[in-house]
Amino acid sequence: MNIVLLSGGSGQRLWPLSNDIRSKQFIKIFHTADGALESMVQRVYRQIKEVDGDAAVTIATSKSQVSSIHNQLGEAVGISIEPCRRDTFPAIALAAAYLKDVKGIGEDEAVVVCPVDPYVENDYFEALKELGQLAQSSEANLVLMGIEPTYPSEKYGYIIPDGSKKVSRVSMFKEKPTQQLAAEYIAQGALWNGGVFAFRLGYVLRRAHELISFTDYNDLFAKYDTLNKISFDYAVAEHESLIEVMRFSGTWKDIGTWNTLTEAMTGNFVGEAMFNEECKNVHVINELNVPIICMGLKDVVVSASPDGILVSDKEQSSYIKPLVNKLEQRIMFAEKSWGSFRVLDMAEGSATIKVTLHPGHRMNYHSHDHRDEVWTVISGEGRTIVDGMEQQVKPGDVVTMAAGCRHTIIADTELQVIEVQLGKEISVHDKHKYELED
Amino acid sequence: MNIVLLSGGSGQRLWPLSNDIRSKQFIKIFHTADGALESMVQRVYRQIKEVDGDAAVTIATSKSQVSSIHNQLGEAVGISIEPCRRDTFPAIALAAAYLKDVKGIGEDEAVVVCPVDPYVENDYFEALKELGQLAQSSEANLVLMGIEPTYPSEKYGYIIPDGSKKVSRVSMFKEKPTQQLAAEYIAQGALWNGGVFAFRLGYVLRRAHELISFTDYNDLFAKYDTLNKISFDYAVAEHESLIEVMRFSGTWKDIGTWNTLTEAMTGNFVGEAMFNEECKNVHVINELNVPIICMGLKDVVVSASPDGILVSDKEQSSYIKPLVNKLEQRIMFAEKSWGSFRVLDMAEGSATIKVTLHPGHRMNYHSHDHRDEVWTVISGEGRTIVDGMEQQVKPGDVVTMAAGCRHTIIADTELQVIEVQLGKEISVHDKHKYELED
Fold it and tell me: What is the pLDDT of residues A333-355, one digit of tens each?
């Protein structure tokens, strides 16, 4: 199976665990069978590989997620990098060109497209495999998955099939309706549109060439920022007459809010938490290294990260966006290709940061105009390069770097450093990168 | 007026803001008229001075609170230091000996004793002044304050007066009753025992000498740890026949739990917090430098400190002790005589701490057996002394101290330092103190 996972932008609806550079699909909140924690993207990737060990997985995403994807899934996964965000049609067109021109997939081969963040069981991916087989053999150009509704939701688009068989022609698409309309659609046999579809690669490439003038993957990539934002449904699916829908009635949850996310959690908490007996339906996700005590709460989610703390009634939690928009966004934690950082303290004229580097990785070789830095190695072994001079470092070693001096640190083992930044204007934009000479 | 404020031990009932070394009376949660924040002890001290600018205030407390008291009230306040905790009778006996032998107060002078943490208005201290005058002139040996009850509380002892005049003889004391009994007492005209009383100094000294064999203040101080724990009510008040009670009907709140403490707050939050419109009767006390967002909560208190996070229904919050007892206590923030420290990060083999020194203050001159330390100055100016060598320091300066080396830092201005501790066994007990040679 060729599968393209659409990995969307960072959301504010799961603040404080998602932010401008950290998306919900990378938060480790699900317990695996052996008790470890995995993220949504790790869960989905694991499930796909359990169902089809040979599945070729490509993630369509923006540059900002590449580090997290490699950290969480390893290097084997394909990534179609969108230079900027342009909605699902351009993203799928680019991924299709990537599959053909970079991965060498034939135009007759079926491709399944699916969001990266449904909370499902393995039967969902069995169904995706079936969807791909249908797309391969059917005369239809597009085969959708239609999820059997469990209630008249206002959050999803609806697909009205031309009959009640497992696979039917699509009769009509309906935009997100009111609850009353949703109930009427369901009475007519409507299915939820979960954003999953399969096609032969050549079909989408032809549609792409009809709508966008480009020669190949590199050309499309180069002009990506000039494309209009348009959804795949609007650009392609709604105009296609040879289109079918396959029913799916297994578990399917859209983990877009704290309310739905906590429903999918296997226990009541991740991280350090205590509840008294009066707590009912309370979930805690605690990324801080201090305890959270909950007493006498009902239907509440508590989430704490280096960025902030949310305490919300579960129903109310879906209205978080306007509140988060009012916050001054300060990124206090981020994963990078080389490891991660966490801001420990911000003060006037200084910032203190804990930097973790993965073995074999290093920071960019860089300098700052307006700040000095002091590194104190607290664990691991590695080497620093400061203005071209390489030096071995171990715990307790201190390296000072004046403004203007070029520096990097290379991890030979997992390496942790306390970095103190000093200067009147401390900014992430104050950075020059350089090539390292051999 | 001579007034002794009893400053009790650290409570767990206001976790995470109070802990083993930090007591509720020092938490800055009250807004003054000009918008600044003040603690309970600062509020009470300010109120006393507003009512009686000449009041001689002595705080009876343990050694662990002395730094916080001087930091918050300055150096002028008297402190009777209890070498260990022995309940209110030994504490008051020691304070009485301190007033006579250290402060030179005459045995005929009246002394008023009062807890350090009632939430009251200035009329309460007017009443205390009156209580002192009564004790001075009355034939009674002891004059208590009786607070007119507002509901049949199970939390307080009751005083049954011999009549309904403003000042009456005491007819009987009653221990904390059931709610039903409390209602009966109130029907008989009972008053709450708020732990406030006045006497002529000589009276309590005589009682003290009857019950404890000691010569003077220094002798009592030296044998303090051999004394039995016993309350003043039990040792003295309940055996005294020449005893009066004066009614008080003004504002009086016992700020012993989150529920009562939040009632006394002037606004809904201290620190960074946001509420959506569905929140009702929600209070946030946030000592962290990240925002807290509350949504759809009712009757909830959220309190966040470097030690942890509490989210509790207000009624339930009074049952916190057993949960806090289960926590491994890690002190993440503390005030010291020289300033304060906050633990930023704990890891295997290292700890990172932000140290703030007040101008003119310094740490003890000390060394560690099992850890190296690195200081990076982030603000202010001062001097370090390392193995006898003094050196000026300013922001950006780095000082490294190997295990065994003697060191201190002296603040010439307000000084902040990031201290990285490195070693296999990092413990607060690994410390040797030395005298500094001139």
Answer: 887 878 889 999 988 999 999 99
Q: ∠ CA(A331), CA(A334), CA(A335), 5° rounding? A: 165
C-alpha of B391 from chain center: 37
Buried-state track A333-342, b at ≥16 Cβ within 10 A, e below 16: bbbbebbbbb
> Three-state DSSP class for A179?
helix
Chain A residues whose CB is inside 8 A of the B304 CB are: 309
Question: Which residues in A142-263 belong to E strands, given as ranges?
Answer: 142-147, 158-161, 167-174, 191-200, 243-248, 252-254
Residues of B in contact with A380 (CB under 8 A): none
For residue B62, what are its two tokens? Answer: 């343990």
Per CB-CB distance under 8 Å, the chain B contacts of A291 are: 308-309, 327
Q: Are A192 and A158 in contact (CB under 8 A)?
A: yes
Hey, are the CB atoms on A311 and B293 less than 8 Å from each other? Answer: yes
Chain B residue at shortest CA distance from A275 = B323
Shortest alpha-carbon distance between residue A334 and chain B (Å): 16
Q: Which two tokens stand for residue A123?
A: 């039967």
Q: Is A347 exposed, middle or buried (0-12, 13-18, 19+ CB in 10 A)?
A: middle
Gap from A241 CA to chain B (nearest CA, Å): 46
Closest CA to B373 of B396, B341, B405, B334: B405
Question: From the list A307, A317, A326, which residue is nearest B274 (CB)?
Answer: A326
DSSP-derived 3-state class of residue A243: strand
Q: What is the pLDDT of residues B384-405, one digit of tens each?
A: 999 999 999 999 999 999 999 9
**Calpha distance B417→B431 (Å, rounded):** 19
- Å from A343 to nearest chain B CA? 10
pLDDT in tens, A257-307: 888 889 888 889 999 999 999 999 999 999 988 999 999 999 999 999 988
**Residue A221 CB coordination number (10 Å):** 19
Contacts of residue A327 in chain B, CB cutoff 8 Å? 274, 291, 293
